[in-house]
Amino acid sequence: MLSEMLADDPAVTHIAVVHCETTTGILNDIESVGRVAKSCGKKFIVDAMSSFGGISLYMDDLDIDFLISSANKCIEGVPGFAFVIAKRAELAECGGRARSLSLDLYSQWKTMEEHRGKWRFTSPTHVVVAFAEAMRELKEEGGVVARNMRYTANRDMLIRGMEELGFRALLPDELRSPVITSFLYPEGVGFDFTDFYESLKRDGYVIYPGKLSERNTFRIGNIGDIREEQITGLLAAVERYVKRLENEAPSLCA
Ligand SMILES: *Cc1c(COP(=O)(O)O)cnc(C)c1O
Q1: Each residue of 225-235: pLDDT tens digit?
Q2: What pTM did the predictor assign?
Q3: Pocket around ligand 1: residues whose beta carbon is below 6 Å from it?
């Protein structure tokens, strides 16, 4: 069993897991991973980059030692800093361990503690102001639960609409994250990703290419101040591309 293998291996000191894995769009079961990590006495690190603020999680319940996220994902701030939520006792043990000058979490924390919130290097002032505003808007929306409901409703509407246009999501429902979805290339219709991408972009929508080695996929993300009308608009743009493909299909076959 995994927990026995881990318990027997002192070389493994920490277990890290990505919560919302954006390559595929999988929402990993951090609760189970955390339970295994803790049952064999390992430190537990969660990459919550694209889940924190958009998916409820409880640090205490999950006994997370370090959680990492950033200003520009589900909190809906602008890019510019990442942050770590950590157990003080664990962080206190990290002094002198950093292998780079700037990526030194302990020193950053110390500086902030000792100088009333001062940043170690030049403060990203505009980003901090935007973050404070984003936090205010998150609260105004009804907090993480309300935001999760909006993201989930948008994702569901997106998948339903894409399926009606002949696309299929890569993952089964129970594995899907609410913030990014991988779709398979449709088969036998002359689909070309670059062409598809450029067509959507001309209509004002930017999507992501896939990154999987085994399957041909593309991804559509829906983090951000996105509402029903943006999903409707995107689906209309996808439909225009599909219609064009259908009209061109005879000449492709000729
Ligand atoms: C977005 C993301 C990153 C990178 O975040 P940046 O804000 O671009 O630094 C890393 N991991 C995951 C899981 C992400 O979703």
Answers
A1: 999 999 999 99
A2: 0.93
A3: 18, 22, 47, 49-50, 70, 72-73, 79
